[in-house]
């Protein structure tokens, strides 16, 4: 197909989904689709779903309901991908007759072909898990056409079965991608102008462990770090149980590895961590944090916290607050627990009332807000190295991120996009920093 058609993607959920949506856009570019921010003008609408939150399926069905009338008014194709698609499969096509295609989290590579069929009126659902770990098309290679930063998937799925989490059921078991292919993709991205890569997976620390002869994740970081022209490396997400001394040492040894780690603790009490099946104690978590801070004294740590998990007492909850204070996270994602079907925690006794969980969430968020503001204020009058990513939304400033992953806005010439520059921080806000270009030395 060569005619230009418009593609609108609505993305729900986590970074993995954002990355999948980028891949969808890149894959469909080859079918003549150009992204548009305007759903009402689109020839193809893709809804990339997430099933982590409670009642996600109901929300997706009701979201899709709004397209019923629109479909009568004008011609366009409607597709659903992501975790709810994986979970519901062909049932979605049956229950939503105006839906054209459904693709699971392991079937992105089939999308161009499915869209071509849909253009000819053939409706289809593809949600099979692919368990052959050498299948290269699990990780379709994409060229998203520019940009300074790029996400590169290194593995997907998870074998950890945290008792509250649906990922192992909808994303499947861990599959790592061959290191040679990842390195090749990063080299290609750098040749195309990318300066920073974020290596992505549900549990990157266990990268390669189940593939005989494959590099460890630390080994992969070292190889990628040797690529000329690449300035920065980040990765996410890291399971505290699996972060190895070898990986911690990378923070001391590899200057290109950014001084930031997302290390989700989820809770501060051993009783709750055990119920969550997290595989570490509070003390073990804090030891890993201490080792990271020893390897890279200026490292910034972000995390995740769940409150109101079944059986969580006030004392358990206070231990979560004290853990947050000990670690001094720069920021966290915080959630009130909600049960997901199929997960072990859904049948645990000791439900915390919604009111209590909401109150605890507010206390967590208030504490984090205070710590974030204090941390951001601490950067005022320091000089930070910033990779300039683009123009800010207001259009009168540039924005970029520090090695610690803080967003910095500052006024400067747009020709600096793609460069590493020194910025003197002048103000800290709750979500970002403001600065001015530091004079050249
Ligand atoms: S490590 Fe736990 S929370 Fe993270 S994806 Fe795996 S099962 Fe889910």
From TrEMBL:
The cofactor(s) it depends on are: [4Fe-4S] cluster
Binding residues for [4Fe-4S] cluster 2: 158, 162, 165
Q: Which gene encodes it?
A: miaB
Provide the binding site for [4Fe-4S] cluster 1.
14, 50, 83
Q: Which UniProt keywords apply?
A: 4Fe-4S, Cytoplasm, Iron, Iron-sulfur, Metal-binding, S-adenosyl-L-methionine, Transferase, tRNA processing
Where along the sequence do coiled-coil regions lie?
none
Family statement drawn from the similarity comment of this UniProt entry: Belongs to the methylthiotransferase family. MiaB subfamily.
UniProt protein name: tRNA-2-methylthio-N(6)-dimethylallyladenosine synthase
EC id: 2.8.4.3
Residue intervals of the MTTase N-terminal domain: 5-120
Q: Where in the cell is it found?
A: Cytoplasm
Q: What does this protein do?
A: Catalyzes the methylthiolation of N6-(dimethylallyl)adenosine (i(6)A), leading to the formation of 2-methylthio-N6-(dimethylallyl)adenosine (ms(2)i(6)A) at position 37 in tRNAs that read codons beginning with uridine.
Please verify whether the record's keywords include Magnesium: no
Organism equals: Geobacter benzoatilyticus
Subunit details: Monomer.
Q: What's the main place this protein lives?
A: cytoplasm
Q: What class of enzyme is it?
A: transferase
């Amino acid at each position: 197909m060569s005619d230009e058609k418009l593609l609108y993607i609505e993305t729900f959920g986590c970074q993995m989904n954002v990355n999948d949506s980028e891949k969808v856009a890149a894959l469909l570019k080859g079918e003549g689709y150009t992204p548009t921010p305007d759903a009402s003008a689109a020839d193809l609408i893709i809804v990339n779903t997430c099933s982590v939150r409670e009642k996600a399926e109901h929300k997706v069905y009701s979201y899709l309901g709004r397209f019923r009338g629109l479909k009568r008014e004008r011609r366009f194709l409607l597709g659903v991908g992501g975790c709810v698609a994986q979970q519901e499969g062909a049932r979605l096509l049956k229950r939503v007759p105006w839906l054209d295609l459904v693709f699971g989290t392991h079937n992105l590579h089939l999308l161009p072909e499915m869209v071509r069929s849909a253009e000819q009126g053939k409706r289809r659902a593809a949600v099979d898990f692919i368990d052959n770990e050498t299948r290269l098309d699990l990780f379709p290679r994409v060229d998203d056409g520019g940009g300074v930063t790029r996400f590169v998937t290194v593995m997907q799925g998870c074998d950890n079965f945290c008792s509250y989490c649906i990922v192992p059921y909808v994303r499947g078991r861990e599959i790592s991608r061959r290191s040679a292919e990842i390195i090749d993709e990063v080299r290609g991205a750098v040749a195309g102008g990318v300066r920073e890569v974020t290596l992505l997976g549900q549990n990157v620390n266990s990268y390669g462990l189940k593939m005989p002869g494959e590099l460890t994740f630390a080994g992969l970081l070292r190889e990628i770090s040797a690529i000329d022209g690449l300035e920065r490396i980040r990765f996410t997400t890291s399971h505290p149980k699996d972060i190895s001394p070898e990986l911690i040492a990378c923070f001391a040894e590899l200057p290109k590895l950014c001084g930031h780690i997302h290390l989700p603790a989820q809770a501060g009490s051993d009783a709750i961590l055990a119920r969550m099946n997290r595989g570490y104690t509070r003390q073990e978590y804090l030891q890993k944090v201490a080792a990271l801070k020893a390897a890279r004294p200026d490292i910034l740590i972000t995390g995740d916290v769940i409150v109101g998990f079944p059986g969580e007492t006030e004392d358990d909850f206070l231990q979560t607050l004290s853990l947050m204070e000990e670690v001094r996270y720069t920021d966290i994602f915080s959630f009130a627990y909600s049960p997901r079907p199929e997960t072990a925690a859904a049948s645990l006794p000791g439900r915390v009332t919604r009111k209590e969980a909401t109150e605890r969430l507010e206390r967590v968020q208030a504490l984090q807000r205070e710590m974030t503001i204090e941390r951001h204020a601490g950067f005022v009058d320091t000089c930070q190295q910033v990779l300039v990513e683009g123009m800010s939304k207001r259009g009168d400033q540039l924005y970029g991120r520090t090695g610690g992953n803080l967003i910095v806005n500052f006024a400067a010439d747009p020709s600096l996009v793609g460069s590493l520059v020194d910025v003197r921080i002048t103000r800290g806000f709750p979500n970002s920093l403001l600065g001015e270009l530091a004079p050249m030395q």
